[in-house]
Design a protein that fits this description.
Structural class: alpha+beta
Helix content: 40-55%
Strand order of the largest sheet: 10-12-13-14-11-15
Length: about 450
């Protein structure tokens, strides 16, 4: 079939739009190519300056201008192999270790590169989510330790930016590295064994079938700061820490041989709950039941529960008084109106005076009721938080069951604080979790 096909370029607004889109794409690509060219030129220049700096020694220093003056005018060059190494270490302070980010210059073959400043970026570690450390020109160091103190026990990525260069330079090379801050970095490991008398009496006991000791050590190495591998893989069934956040209170983990039982001895129930949640997640255990013994915290829960009940009774008494006053006020209003209709002005004055007194009592009762309600809400909030904290010592459905049973007890008018505290314990057998028990090491 013979024929002819013709095509025409658009005219008017459509043509202008197509041309502008084509131009914008070309301009964007050209801009990117120019940026890449500029970056490559800067890299080539830096490499050339570094080679010259390695060959040419520094001839003098101009302290007035605060720069290094070399033979070729090279002020900021560093060796091309120079970089930084970042790690988590322990900074000793008055005999107590604390976590610190260590930044160290590596690969500096001409030995004239120093750390000028370090910036740390991390969420939930610093007050303003960043920490800046600056060193004056007269201080030359190739290794710095920056103490860190996380506000919560969470695993956090820390971005480290280090500014390095010659001692008196005003322009610096910036190196970036990321560092993983373990979840329990505020628990300081203790190498020496703790006397059994110093082991806390409060504990959380878990039974995880099939758990092996090497899995526990792998978890410790991943979630804690350790001195070295020998401390983690040593021939021991108990591991000791001290909490920096809680005045160096001890935390002890014991593995009961091949029984699948392990126990966390500590008076810090919040820390114990976080450890249980982290461990069960690492071992991929969905439902884990525990036995808990925290007598001080149980007493606190029972006290909160009893105070909530007392506040409930006080609010009920206030509501009853308000209802009585309301009935009396209605009667006084009727009496005042009757006195007015009979032109008994003395009775009217007496009725309204009584109304005024009752209104003042109502206002006072309302203020007391508001204060009591606020106090009751705060106590209820503390009680709910205590239940949630206790429930974290269990995992999966057992944690949900603990919360549900606790709510049922709190809604029961006949229940007491002791009932709520005993519900948290579970089926407790204290002798089964004696830390003095000996078991053979498993692999």
């Amino acid at each position: 079939m013979d024929g002819e096909v013709s095509a025409y370029e658009p005219s008017g607004p459509d043509r202008v739009r197509l041309e502008s889109e084509k131009t914008s794409v070309e301009d964007y690509q050209l801009k990117e190519l120019r940026q890449q060219k500029q970056a490559l030129l800067l890299k080539i220049k830096a490499v050339e300056e570094t080679k010259e700096a390695a060959k040419t020694p520094v001839q003098g220093r101009n302290l007035d201008f605060g720069v290094l003056i070399g033979k070729e005018g090279n002020l900021t060059a560093i060796h091309h192999t120079t970089g930084i190494d970042v790690s988590m270490t322990f900074k000793d302070s008055q005999g107590a270790g604390s976590p610190a980010v260590t930044v160290r210059v590596i690969g500096d073959k001409i030995q004239h590169t120093y750390i000028k400043a370090v910036v740390l970026f991390a969420e939930g570690v610093f007050e303003n989510e960043s920490h800046f450390v600056y060193y004056p020109s007269n201080m030359t160091t190739q290794e710095v330790e920056i103490p860190v103190r996380p506000m919560r026990d969470v695993q956090t990525d820390v971005l480290v930016k280090a500014f390095i260069g010659p001692q008196f330079t005003q322009q610096f090379h910036v190196f970036e590295k990321e560092l993983l801050l373990p979840q329990f970095s505020m628990l300081v490991p203790i190498k020496d064994k703790m006397p059994l008398a110093d082991v806390p009496k409060s504990f959380v006991g878990l039974h995880i079938p099939g758990v092996q000791q090497r899995n526990i050590w792998q978890w410790i190495a991943a979630e804690f700061l350790v001195h070295d591998e020998t401390w983690v893989l040593g021939d021991m069934d108990m591991v000791y820490w001290k909490s920096l956040r809680h005045d160096f209170q001890p935390v002890v983990l014991k593995v009961f041989g091949t029984t699948g039982k392990l126990c966390i001895y500590t008076n810090l129930i919040q820390v114990a709950g976080d450890i249980v949640q982290a461990l069960t997640n690492f071992l991929h255990q969905k439902d884990v039941l525990s036995e808990c013994y925290f007598p001080d915290y149980e007493e606190y829960i029972a006290e909160c529960f009893e105070r909530v009940r007392e506040q409930d009774k006080a609010c009920m008494a206030i509501r009853t008084d308000i209802a009585d006053h309301s009935n009396l006020i209605r009667g006084l209003v009727v009496r005042a109106e009757d006195a007015r209709l009979t032109h008994d002005m003395s009775g009217v004055r007496q009725a309204y005076k009584s109304l005024h007194d009752f209104n003042l009592d109502l206002v006072k009762g309302y203020n007391v009721r508001c204060a009591t309600f606020d106090s009751q809400q705060e106590l209820q909030r503390q009680l709910n938080m205590a239940v949630q904290t206790f429930s974290k010592t269990r995992a999966g459905k057992h944690r949900a069951e603990t919360v549900a049973s606790s709510k049922a007890i709190m809604e029961d008018d006949t229940a007491t604080g002791h009932d709520l505290a005993m519900n948290m314990r579970g089926r407790l057998n204290i002798s089964a979790w004696d830390p003095s028990q000996k078991f053979s090491k498993i692999s």
